[in-house]
Design goal:
seven-stranded mixed β-sheet; alpha/beta; 22 strands; 23% strand; five-stranded parallel β-sheet
Length: 524
């Protein structure tokens, strides 16, 4: 009988691990998913024929392994109107718009990346470029302050860099930090930047600066297959025709077809361990029945605080206290279907309904709570049931049980529509329909008890047959490709009989895996 690898969670990390184990064939993966669908926050939510991408997922990675893995699951669509790009060193014809899909519709599109910042009721290029529009929108006085503060930060940087504010001020200067970073970042995390660890900036913004942004503006390189390009600066990216959930649904199908198993509506409540090894998992099914499941290895993507709280015998009191206090930021998306948007010369719209070309727009304004606006039509036209309508996603960052999280759906939809009207983007009368999606524990946070997280990590790493992977599994703000790489390395460690987890924890720290992004929380 083959050894069993129990995998907690059917998101990108869990499903990557499962498929890699199926492909190897020496062990049997069993995935335990608490919900009734796969994909985690990379799932596609369907509403009245329209599809929502929770947080927006650009399929681009600096890892060739990840790019090839995606391409194997969903081949790139192309037709006679395609354009030629360089992809993994090979010339390929790749369509950039509405490709003709294969018979089964399982295809990747190549999409143009357009995202801007909305500030002072005006649009700014993202990353910020020193073009005429930017100079005019900012005005001479603000530009002078930005230039002088950048020079000051360059000549006299803060030496004791402890907080995200220290990190950003050193990188961009006080005025630019206040103009384009501070308010948005504090919307995301709900605390001042001075309370967020500088580690978050080092992880997410490591290789980008004002100089890099200027160089990019001069180069304007098409980087869909250039894995040396800063991820926040790519001009094109791959995207599943029906959203990210389409890819993970196909992965799940291959896992089941290959001999693996995915058990839905199964909540893992805890792990039994003895002599440094997990001996069994306590699982509660959809009907409330509880059972113990034996496993030779466990790969966990569940939130660290929940994993530690369910350990039996209990973890040391210090580990439990730190884990229980680990902070998270929750996420809420309001989908709005609108007939048109308000005309705005800066919106660059070439459509009769005034739809701008952006994938997403960062809302930097202080007088509204929405943090980012997605335009799903521009991710894939196949996400929208009717081509003449605009399908929007308004993203809010909140805490479970706060005023936004607990607002009834109808009132939340009305609130979101009112905010877009206040921003001069829509007329409320043009809203045709709406829905609300709430996602708990979306953002593992880098403040508070996180400072003592190494104590929790050290204790969990001593459990010989337990491997932590993915975003919540490692309490690390990993993107989709980073989560996949942690799963790959965990599977390799299990198959090779390794115990050392240093390589797994190095993902998204090491330069080879690192995503560098100029704007806080650029993508989930």
């Amino acid at each position: 009988m083959k050894p069993v690898v129990a995998i907690i969670g059917a998101g990108p990390a869990g499903l990557t691990a499962a498929l890699e184990l199926v492909r190897d064939g020496r062990m049997t993966p069993i995935v335990f998913e608490a919900s009734d669908q796969v994909g985690g926050i990379s799932r596609t939510v369907e509403y009245q024929g329209n599809r929502m991408d929770i947080g927006g997922h650009r399929f681009f990675s600096k890892s060739d392994w990840v790019m090839n893995w995606w391409r194997d699951i969903l081949p790139i669509a192309g037709d006679e109107s395609a354009v030629e790009i360089v992809y993994h060193g090979q010339r390929r014809s790749v369509d950039t718009d509405r490709a003709t899909p294969a018979d089964d519709g399982l295809t990747m599109l190549v999409r143009k990346r357009v995202s801007r910042i909305y500030f002072l009721r005006k649009y700014f290029d993202y990353p910020i470029t020193l073009n005429r529009t930017t100079l005019t929108n900012l005005g001479a006085v603000r530009l002078l302050r930005i230039g002088l503060s950048y020079l000051r930060a360059t000549c006299f940087p803060r030496r004791n860099v402890r907080s995200l504010e220290d990190f950003l001020v050193n990188r961009f200067g006080t005025e630019l930090y206040r103009t384009f970073f501070k308010d948005y970042t504090e919307k995301v995390w709900g605390v001042p930047c001075s309370q967020i660890s500088a580690e978050w900036g080092a992880q997410r913004i490591k290789g980008l600066s004002v100089i890099e942004a200027i160089k990019h503006a001069l180069r304007k390189r098409d980087a869909a297959g250039d894995t040396t390009t800063k991820t926040s600066l790519i001009d094109r990216f791959l995207y599943p025709r029906l959203g990210p959930g389409q890819l993970w649904q196909e992965v799940a199908r291959r896992v089941s077809e290959g001999g693996g198993e995915i058990r839905f509506d199964c909540q893992v409540e805890g792990l039994e361990h003895h002599a440094g090894k997990v001996t069994a998992m306590r699982v509660r099914g959809a009907a409330g029945q509880r059972q113990e499941v034996a496993a030779d290895y466990v790969i966990s993507t569940m939130a660290v605080k929940d994993l530690v709280s369910g350990m039996q015998p209990p973890a040391p009191s210090e580990v439990r206290e730190i884990a229980s206090a680990l902070p998270y930021r929750d996420f809420l998306t309001v989908g709005l279907l609108v007939s048109r948007m308000r005309a705005n010369p800066q919106a660059l719209s070439d459509r009769a309904n005034n739809m701008p070309p952006d994938n997403w727009i960062y809302i930097q304004e202080r007088d509204v709570r929405v943090g980012r606006l997605q335009i799903f039509n521009n991710w894939s036209p196949h996400l929208v049931a009717r081509e003449d309508l605009i399908w929007l996603g308004l993203e809010y960052f909140c805490q479970q049980d706060d005023d936004l999280w607990t607002l009834p759906d109808a009132r939340m939809i009305d609130f979101a529509a009112g905010e877009l009207e206040k921003l001069d983007m829509i007329d409320r009368a043009d809203v045709l329909d709406g829905t609300v999606v709430r996602v708990p524990k979306t953002y593992p946070a880098y403040f508070g008890a996180y400072a003592d997280f190494p104590i929790v990590r050290e204790w969990l790493d001593k459990v010989e047959n337990l491997y932590l992977v993915g975003r919540n599994g490692m309490h690390r703000y990993n993107n989709q490709d980073h989560s996949m790489l942690t799963a790959k390395l965990a599977v390799e460690a299990i198959l090779d009989g390794k115990v050392d987890r240093a390589a797994i924890w190095a993902v998204n720290i090491d330069d080879d895996y690192h995503e560098e992004t100029k704007q806080a929380a650029d993508g989930l």
